[in-house]
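Notebook entry, cofactor series.
This is the third protein in the set we're modelling with a bound small molecule. For this one the ligand is flavin-adenine dinucleotide. I'm keeping the input format identical across the series so the outputs can be compared line by line later. Sequence and SMILES below, as received.
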Amino acid sequence: MYLDANSLPDGTTLSNFDVCIAGGGVAGLVIASELIGSNARVLVLSNGQATDAGPAPDPARQSIYNGTIGPFMTKVRPEFLAVSRLNMYGGTSNHFWFNAYPLDQADLEPRPGYRDASWPIGIDELNSYYPRANRYGDYGPFNYRDIAFWSAALHGQPFAQMDGDHFSNAVFRGQKKTNISQFQTQLGGALQAAGNVTVLFNAHVLQVAANDSRSHVTSVSCASIQDGKPGIHFTVDSCRAYVLAQGGIETVRMLRLSGGLGDNAQGHLGSGFMLHPVIRTTATVDMSPPVDPTVRAFYRGSEVVIGDDGQLVTGRVLDPLELGANHDFVAWGMLGPTAEAMAENRIGSFHVLLSFDDTGEQITLAYNWESVPNPASTIALDQSQVDPVFGQPVVNVDWNVLETEKRTLRVGLELMEGFFKARGGSNFQVLTKTDGGPEDWTFSPDFSDPAGLRPGDHHMGALRMSAAAEDGIVDRDCRVHTVDNLFVAGSGVFPTSGSANPTLTIVALAVRLADHLKTVIQ
Ligand SMILES: Cc1cc2nc3c(=O)[nH]c(=O)nc-3n(C[C@H](O)[C@H](O)[C@H](O)COP(=O)(O)OP(=O)(O)OC[C@H]3O[C@@H](n4cnc5c(N)ncnc54)[C@H](O)[C@@H]3O)c2cc1C
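Returned structure with ligand:
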């Protein structure tokens, strides 16, 4: 059911729920949806409104996301905190196309010489949840690496493999239909109808309270939002499980506002924050003979239609008026380094988007790549400023790039040059700055120069998952190591980032956490 916190009497204590989910964004709504019909009585605390839809949040609510950034981010994207997330029902999914690709095995394992970090769960574990996650994009079969399928769907062929290649092909998907990509639009009807789920709107979580030993959450304190100001105060207590699903930055802020709850002796809370670096135009290459139209078609991508039986119906460039049809999404091929190439060259993962001129004589390369959990990239509180609605200290995000990450760009481009030269490429022009140290880039904070470094909008790693409590914040089940009934959902738990958009993995982990919570509540 849907309920408005402003309809509660001031000072209410809600004690009749098993699972309390703080945050009605992608992760929170997926968990709640997966728990529909289960034994659990579920409460979702959404600081948004039932009517929220589209990338225009209420300004007062969005102002709670204000904060301060470190010197490097100031040079790269000064308005990062204002534009990189949405404080509303459905969260940041109101902003996106749900571009999706899963993590690969090499993304989860340590890569000596590049990074030591790794996941405490294996790719088989994630692969057993990705097919269910895929359904949240209405993406048909989970077959991102089935190049034969995608060649048929995209009416094209990738570049033919050659001896000595360091690249393989990946097919990404994107969901343009807002009735699917906006998670509250997709899932809201079922949540509203569910007998065991309550979505409480205008419900802003202020703090998580724990027992004296800080090993058990006793309650969360909340306030409603009324006309952009604090309304009534209420508390949620006696839950068997509390899930923080407020996004990769705000969940850290919440734990910090709660006295650093969940931090370990090593101070991992808020440390190792990762963003995918992105450069829209890294290089161009001239091709002779021109690239065949069928090869261009594979990388240019198209609309794909999957039938109810999971089989491909067609891949074609659709008339925009047809976009309402079921099971349509976009897909396109990208090049990425093989696991062997990454290991040999001690570089991160990356994905290269190819765009072609009309004749196929020139290719432009867009590049986005893997970030490393850098202890100098942090999320903290800035005690010198408070948010304008609740007066709590704002967040400070200090993002920095390491030499290994810059090397991934430089070496990756050298490998790309070799790949295209072997296929008739010449005049490989690198358009962005690749020399100098990790603080030295082509800067274009207003994005007017497409060769400028951009921070991706993927907030990962500051609450990382680890096998041992001393190495991270949450365990394999996404439970905070030091707190027996507190869980985290979202990309904050990623120990490594890969180079794919994170939300498919966020959804897979949310589905997995919901399954786990069912066993906890039984
Ligand atoms: C422009 C843009 C494009 C993107 N494109 C893609 C893409 O194509 N593919 C992809 O994988 N990812 C993309 N992303 C990233 C994607 O949006 C996030 O990975 C995803 O939304 C994270 O889900 P989440 O549930 O963790 O956080 P969110 O979706 O941000 O949800 C957090 C929720 O918590 C709520 N909340 C916060 N604080 C409180 C509080 N104190 N009390 C109560 N509620 C609270 C918020 O209102 C929000 O509803 C994009 C992001 C942006 C900005």
